[in-house]
Design a protein that fits this description.
two-stranded antiparallel ribbon, mainly alpha, 6% strand
Length: 218
């Protein structure tokens, strides 16, 4: 059941999500018809969208993500098990991304020089460091954490898996931030960026570790 504080957070985060609409309306006529929405590892735009969709539609996409995430967070039967800091971080992540990423995209479309190859890894790295710090403090719940059959079935499996994942997330965040400053635009010969490789490791290793813990206990 939502409390008064929950309703306040829901209202505030929803309002923040659509704040970039103000900027979009101010600069709309100066925007090109097509706006870059994706860049390659060298920072070159390689995918575009109509300016109406990008400038006016994207804030409401973030609003939808925000409302959906709050629906999950507020109706989790085990929400009390999640770290309060993680709940607050998860609640404010969509609006913060909205007021950062949308204005940056619009400024780039207006000709401002902003290094996406620096901004995105640093932003992702900071998110990973915060998540990694609080992830081990979560107890079993259905919303925040690695919700695997083995972690949800066994509290010990949950705790050990999230402890490992927490260390990995923090290390990955530091590597991403450091790498963004030391080797902007770097990519492997196969065209796979280090960011993608790091994300794959973070997805696969904790899940494999959780499964091995399960097999060992069975």
């Amino acid at each position: 059941m939502k409390t008064k504080g929950d309703r306040t957070v829901l209202l505030l985060t929803s309002l923040v999500c659509v704040l970039p609409v103000i900027m979009s309306m101010v600069v709309y006529h100066d925007l090109p018809d097509q706006i870059a929405i994706h860049w390659d590892a060298m920072g070159n735009p390689d995918n575009f969208a109509p300016k109406a969709l990008m400038a006016l539609g994207l804030p409401f996409l973030f609003l939808g993500i925000n409302l959906f995430s709050k629906l999950l967070l507020l109706n989790d039967p085990r929400r009390a098990n999640a770290s309060p800091a993680m709940r607050m971080f998860a609640a404010w992540l969509p609006p913060v991304l909205s007021v950062v990423l949308i204005p940056v995209t619009l400024l780039i479309a207006l000709g401002k020089h902003i290094s996406i190859t620096l901004l995105v890894p640093v932003l992702l790295g900071l998110v990973l460091i915060v998540v990694g710090n609080y992830l081990p403090k979560n107890r079993q719940n259905y919303t925040i954490g690695l919700k695997l059959p083995w972690t949800l079935d066994d509290p010990d499996n949950w705790n050990k898996t999230h402890r490992l994942a927490g260390y990995m997330y923090i290390l990955a965040g530091v590597v991403l931030i450091g790498g963004a400053f030391l080797s902007r635009g770097f990519q492997t010969k196969s065209g796979v960026t280090p960011t993608i490789l790091i994300v794959l490791v973070l997805v696969i290793v904790p899940r494999l570790y959780s499964y091995l813990l399960y097999r060992r206990a069975s």
